[in-house]
Amino acid sequence: MTRRIAFSCNGHLTDRLMPIRFFNTYSRRIEDFVPLEPGVVRLYTCGPTVYNFAHIGNFRAYIFEDLLQRHLEFRGFRVIRVMNLTDVDDKTIRGCRAAGIPLAEFTQPFKKAFFEDLDALRIKRAEHFPEATAADHIARMISMISTLVEKGHAYRADDGSVYFRIRSFPAYGQLAHIVLDELQAGVRVRSDEYEKENVGDFALWKAWDQADGDVWWESPWGRGRPGWHIECSAMATGILGPQIDIHCGGEDNIFPHHEAEIAQSECVTGLQFSRYWLHCKHLQVEGTKMAKSAGNFFTLRDLTMEKGWTGREVRYALLSVKYREPLNFTIEGLSAARSALARLDEWTRRIRELANTAKLADALNISELEQFGSSLDDDLNISAALASVFDVIRETNRRIDLGKVTPEEAKGLVEWLEGVQSVLALDPEAEVIPQAVHSLVELRSQARASKDWKASDSLRDQIQALGWTVKDSKDGQKLTRK
Ligand code: AMP
Ligand code: ZN
Question: Which residues, 6 or more positions from 124, have their beta carbon under 8 angstroms from its beta carbon?
Answer without folding.
Answer: 66, 69, 70, 425
